């Protein structure tokens, strides 16, 4: 039995069930179980994740979707399906079809063989941009040609209009690759309320709701607590947020009942400005949002209305995130404590760099910092003299052997460095870098594929 | 006499590549006007110079008693290639809060 489309509803409740791929599954389950939501949105794709997924897919063709998908789906389906809560997620990442297949397998194992998944495709534009070396990279200002041989992925940030046809199929789960985060939330509003792309006020309110919910717990007291200054009650049991959205575009934010956290004007304001540049021109694939005059009003405990967003029409292009191989990063860390710890750590850093130089490795950049002193704010840090300090050396290079050598030389400090070093750690990472290009809208053609019954 | 931004406001930082944005939200109207007068883009650019070359833009949202600072050209190449420990610059909200301002 497919869920009826409920096209006559005047109000829906949309939950923010994940704000990144490592987000807490328990809070999402609690949201779906206790908050009477109609949709749960799981936003799990950081800027670089699709590129990494594509890299994995070239090595293992059945992978490349979010690696937390199985656990998340397994936990949520038994709660969502009986209640009719539909799941929308970008966990498809670089391989939405394989993600849907895996989701369907899990559904069958759990005893829901009648369930289906609608897959949103079309964001992968690698073949298109490979034939357009003249495109300008927004970050470096160079042409795409400068990185062409090293490109591993190109994905357009599609809008809510790409997701709506998937919702119209009636499938319980909708999986996408790259779409803009707020669009995941705007899609069910367009679907339920038949909003058009000329209703700028409605698009603005819907996009604001999506933007506020897209980091889940960051709206309800997560990433907010500063004990004594900004207290958050029962942070351990942080509850995830939802938005009540009406057909007229009224947005009110709420939090899973009987959970920890707080939802008020302060938490909402922090999240409203999160990752925003010019507040009057926040560009999404659905509109150009202006939040300058947004206001919040506390209607009840943990229940806040948001109003005042406006928008201009969407632009005629899509932003495309281009992933490319950019060498390696090698890293090593070691700690020193007690008398003269900082001087010993400085000596350790100096000799590792000298030894790497003597081995004739070529680094694009070597970075040395002292955790506990200056590793976060660099030269802006005030002078301090802690009891213990951790040396951290990281270097970027084209060559994996040179990258490994950074960790090797830090490790070698154990017997060849200053006295009393311990707690050693090393790693080498393959570096996937990201830049962006703009592609004309007409080149991107979203389409839908269904897996399951 | 001096005060810290920390005494009159709260902040959250986010990143997009080589640009970091930091919101500064005053606890009350008095604080907002104090920040408006003293936490200028120039002041922030100076205090963040070891971290970012700039420029620094300041957007005002008076209805929220808030400012949004956009700090460009963060040193170290941005989130995807940075060698920094905090590649996203998320801890930079507390560098903003540590800025010292004159007390009127």
3D structure, described in words:
The complex is a heterodimer of chains A (453) and B (104). Chain A is of the alpha+beta class and 453 residues long. Chain A folds into two domains: 271 residues, no CATH class; 115 residues, Alpha-Beta Plaits. Chain A contains eleven helices and 18 strands. In chain A, the strands form three sheets. A ten-stranded mixed β-sheet of chain A has the order 11-12-8-7-1-2-3-6-4-18, with helices on both faces. In chain A, strands 5, 14, 15, 16 and 17 form a five-stranded antiparallel β-sheet that branches. The longest helix of chain A has 18 residues. Chain A is globular. Chain B is of the alpha+beta class and 104 residues long. Chain B has one domain. Chain B is built from four helices and six strands; from the N terminus they run βαββααββαβ. Chain B has a four-stranded antiparallel β-sheet with strand order 2-3-5-4. In chain B, β4 and β5 form a beta hairpin. Chain B is elongated and about 40 Å long. Chain B starts with a strand and ends with a strand. The mean pLDDT of chain B is 93. At the A-B interface, α9, β15, β16 and β17 of A face β2, β3, β4 and β5 of B.
Helix and strand arrangement:
The complex is a heterodimer of chains A (453) and B (104).
Chain A: E1 11-18, H1 25-34, E2 39-42, H2 49-59, H3 69-83, E3 86-89, H4 96-109, E4 116-121, H5 126-130, E5 151-156, H6 160-168, E6 173-176, H7 181-193, H8 200-213, E7 241-246, E8 251-255, H9 265-272, E9 282-283, E10 287-290, E11 295-300, E12 303-307, E13 310-313, E14 317-337, H10 341-358, E15 365-371, E16 388-397, H11 400-416, E17 422-440, E18 447-452
Helix pairs in contact in A: 1-3, 3-4, 6-7, 7-8, 10-11
Chain B: E1 2-4, H1 5-8, E2 9-16, E3 19-26, H2 29-38, H3 41-47, E4 56-61, E5 66-71, H4 93-97, E6 100-102
Antiparallel strand pairs in B: 1-6, 2-3, 3-5, 4-5
């Amino acid at each position: 039995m497919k869920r009826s489309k409920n096209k006559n509803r005047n109000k829906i409740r949309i939950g923010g069930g994940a704000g990144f791929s490592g987000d807490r599954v328990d809070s999402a389950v609690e949201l779906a179980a206790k908050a009477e939501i109609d949709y749960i949105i799981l936003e799990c794709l950081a800027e670089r994740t699709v590129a990494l997924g594509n890299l994995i897919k070239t090595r293992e063709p059945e992978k490349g979707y979010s690696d937390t998908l199985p656990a998340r789906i397994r936990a949520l389906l038994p709660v969502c399906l009986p209640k009719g809560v539909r799941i929308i997620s970008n966990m498809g990442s670089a391989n939405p079809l394989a993600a849907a297949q895996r989701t369907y397998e899990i559904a069958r194992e759990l005893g829901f063989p009648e369930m289906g998944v609608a897959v949103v495709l079309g964001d992968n534009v690698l073949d298109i941009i490979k034939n357009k070396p003249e495109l300008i990279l927004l970050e470096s200002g160079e042409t795409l040609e400068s990185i062409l041989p090293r490109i591993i992925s190109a994905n357009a940030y599609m809008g809510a209009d790409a997701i709506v046809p998937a919702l119209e199929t009636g499938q319980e789960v909708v999986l996408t690759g790259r779409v803009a985060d707020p669009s995941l939330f705007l899609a069910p509003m367009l679907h339920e309320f038949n909003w058009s792309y000329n209703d700028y006020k409605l698009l603005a309110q819907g996009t604001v709701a999506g933007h506020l919910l897209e980091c889940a717990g960051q709206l309800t007291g997560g990433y907010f607590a500063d004990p004594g200054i900004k207290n958050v009650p029962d942070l351990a049991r942080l509850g995830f947020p939802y938005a009540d959205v009406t057909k007229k575009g009224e947005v009110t934010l709420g939090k899973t009942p009987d959970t920890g956290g707080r939802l008020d004007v302060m938490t909402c304001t922090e999240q409203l400005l999160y990752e925003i540049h010019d507040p009057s021109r926040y560009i999404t694939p659905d509109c150009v949002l202006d939040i300058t005059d947004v206001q919040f009003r506390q209607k009840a405990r943990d229940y806040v209305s948001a109003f005042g967003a406006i928008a201009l029409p969407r632009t005629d292009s899509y932003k495309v995130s281009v992933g490319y191989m950019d060498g390696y990063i090698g890293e090593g860390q070691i700690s020193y404590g007690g008398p003269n710890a900082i001087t010993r750590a400085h000596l350790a850093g100096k000799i590792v760099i000298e030894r790497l130089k003597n081995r004739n490795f070529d680094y694009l950049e070597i970075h040395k910092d002292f955790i506990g002193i200056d590793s976060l704010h660099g030269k802006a840090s005030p002078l301090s003299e802690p009891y213990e300090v951790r040396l951290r050396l990281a270097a970027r290079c084209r060559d994996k052997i040179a990258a490994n050598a950074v960790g090797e030389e830090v490790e070698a400090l154990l017997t060849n460095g200053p006295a009393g070093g311990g707690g050693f750690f090393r790693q080498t990472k393959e570096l996937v870098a990201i830049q962006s290009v703009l592609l004309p809208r007409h080149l991107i053609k979203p389409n839908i594929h269904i897996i399951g019954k | 006499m001096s005060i810290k931004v920390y005494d009159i406001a709260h902040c959250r930082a986010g990143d997009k590549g080589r640009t970091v944005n930091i919101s500064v939200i005053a606890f009350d109207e008095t604080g907002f006007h104090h920040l408006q007068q003293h936490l200028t883009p120039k002041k922030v650019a100076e205090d963040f110079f070891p971290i970012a070359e700039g420029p620094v833009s300041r957007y005002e949202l008076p209805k929220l008693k808030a400012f949004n600072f956009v700090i460009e050209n963060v040193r170290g190449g941005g989130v995807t290639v940075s060698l920094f420990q905090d590649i996203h610059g998320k801890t930079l909200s507390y560098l903003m809060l540590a800025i010292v301002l004159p007390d009127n």
